[in-house]
Every structure is written in structure tokens, then in C-alpha cells.
Amino acid sequence: MSETREYPQPDESQGQERDVRALQRRLAAFAAARDWQPYHTPKNLATALSVEASELVEIFQWLTPEESARVMEDEKSAARVEDEVADVLAYLLQFCEVLGIDALAALAAKIDRNEVRFPAAKR
Questions:
Q1: Nearest Cα to 31, choosing from 94, 82, 81?
Q2: Largest alpha-carbon pair distance within the chain?
Q3: Is the pLDDT of residue 47 over 90?
Q4: Is the pLDDT of residue 29 over 80?
Q5: What angle do CA 24, 26, 79 make, to 5 degrees?
Q6: Rounded distance, CA 117 to CA 84, Å?
Q7: What is the rounded CA–CA span in Å between residue 84 and residue 53?
Q8: How far is CA 97 from CA 32, 40, 107, 120, in A?
Q9: Which H or E run includes 51?
Q10: What is the pLDDT averaged over residues 15-30?
Q11: 49 vs 89: CA distance, rounded Å
């Protein structure tokens, strides 16, 4: 097994590239250049998202809890996990773009609701 991977801290040039809206525009341009927009319906994107999430689950399917906690220590398995995470995120961002959902606002609102629904235990 290799050592745990270190991820560089984003600098200003990466900051723009990692902006959610910029990534959505980049994904839309990628699809447009290949004339894929007719296939990027909410149903198709939700289906593709489910398939990619299942591919992520498949990596962990028969691992013990301990093995799954160490999956990023192996270069090959770490690359597989990262690829599937990227696929899941790409389809989720495209899904949100097509339906006009602000993913970060939706997440923030959901966290707000969950904080009310599941209050932290007093210590």
C-alpha cells in the first residue's frame, strides 16, 4: 500500500476552476461540443447519477469497515474512488443546471432544516 495521498491547497488560479457555476458551465460546454444536450434530460441525468453512485458503492461492496477506511491508501483504489466521485458530482451538477437548482443553496437549506429536526444533544 502507498502512503495517504496529499491534496494541494487550491491557489487563486484553481479557485476559479473549482467554482460550482464555472464547473457547470464547463460541463455544459463539454456536452454542447458533442451535441449531447438532447440526452441531458432530468430523467436521463438522474438515471446516470444513480448508475455512477452505484459504481462508487461497488468499490466498497465487499470491503470490511476497516478496509473501506483505508481505501485511499492504495493508489489504484484511490484513483477509482476519485473517478467515481467526479462522475457522481458531474451528473449532479448537470442535473441541477438543467432544473435550475442552486446546489449549494439547496444543501444549506437542508442543513438548516436538519439542525431543527435533529437538535444536538446537550452535554
A1: 94
A2: 56
A3: yes
A4: yes
A5: 90
A6: 31
A7: 7
A8: 14, 10, 15, 33
A9: helix 42-60
A10: 85
A11: 8
Burial (CB count <10 Å: 0-12, 13-18, 19+), residue 77 = middle
Residues 6+ apart with CB under 8 A from 103: 20, 92, 93, 96
Asked whether the predicted pLDDT for residue 12 surpasses 60, the reply is no
Helix residue spans in 61-121 (DSSP H): 65-69, 75-99, 103-117
Crossing angle for the helix pair 42-60 and 75-99, to the nearest 10 degrees: 160
Q: Which three cell numbers stand for residue 2?
A: 502507498
pTM tops 0.85: no
pLDDT, position 123: 72
Say how far apart CA 8 and CA 22 lie, in whole Å: 20
- What separation in angstroms does the CA of 37 have from each of 27, 33, 42, 44, 71? 11, 9, 11, 11, 35
**Distance, first Cα to last Cα, the chain:** 40
